[in-house]
Design brief:
The chain is an all-alpha fold and 214 residues long. It is built from 8 helices and 2 strands. It is globular and about 55 Å long.
Length: 214
């Protein structure tokens, strides 16, 4: 995640994310996915064993797939409704698109990850919880930005260092590094760590609204 954030900053130095940059990001996502898939065969075998046990208990695979699909559709639909409603309200108050994108839209589109990680953590499926958070961020940078750059280059007219985006990049990089320092000793994300991260997020949101840059 840290490497991806740094790479995103590097390719933005020329004030744009062009088609070549987008292609590299998208191909990197494919390589990253393949690496994770083939690099975790032992865990895959364990999962298959657990799956066999569940099937023997009468839990059908088709039912699980159906519930996953329905759950994803409902969460995505709910997130879109939240984003649409909040965006309309914010525009009524004359708030800039940057602030809307970094706060309301970001929060709304992250609701699926929040719901999935919260449920997975509650059920003690920590790999799903952490993997979902990391995977969604990797996907957003590599796939969303990658495909967007391929379709139409993303321009930063003011340049990265003169633009407010540089501050946002620095915050993104800081947040990418901080959790590693929190868990490197005991591999545990405590409630205190969670409160710290939540406090940083609230502070950042307040900064966006109290010090808007149009």
């Amino acid at each position: 995640m840290v490497i991806i954030s740094i790479y995103l900053m590097i390719i933005s130095l020329d004030s744009k994310i062009g088609r070549f940059d987008g292609l590299i990001l998208f191909l990197s996502l494919i390589a990253y996915t393949i690496f994770n898939y083939y690099g975790d065969k032992k865990r895959q075998q364990d999962v298959l064993i657990l799956e066999d046990i569940r099937l023997k208990k009468g839990i059908k695979k088709s039912s699980q797939i159906f519930l996953i699909v329905v759950g994803i559709l409902l969460v995505v639909l709910g997130a879109r409704m939240v984003v649409s409603g909040a965006e309309m309200i914010m525009r009524m108050f004359g708030i800039s698109e940057r602030v809307i994108g970094l706060s309301i839209v970001a929060f709304g589109t992250s609701l699926p990850e929040l719901a999935t990680s919260a449920v997975a953590s509650y059920r003690r499926h920590m790999d799903i919880s952490i993997g979902n958070l990391i995977g969604s961020n990797v996907f957003n940078i590599m796939c969303v930005l990658g495909l967007t750059g391929l379709i139409k280059p993303i321009l930063l007219p003011e340049g990265i260092f003169k633009s407010h985006i540089f501050i946002d990049y620095m915050i993104m990089l800081f947040i990418s590094i901080l959790p590693w320092f929190m868990i490197k000793k005991d591999l545990l994300m405590s409630r205190k760590d969670g409160l710290i991260l939540l406090g940083i997020y609230i502070t950042y949101i307040l900064y966006l609204y109290l010090c808007p840059i149009h």
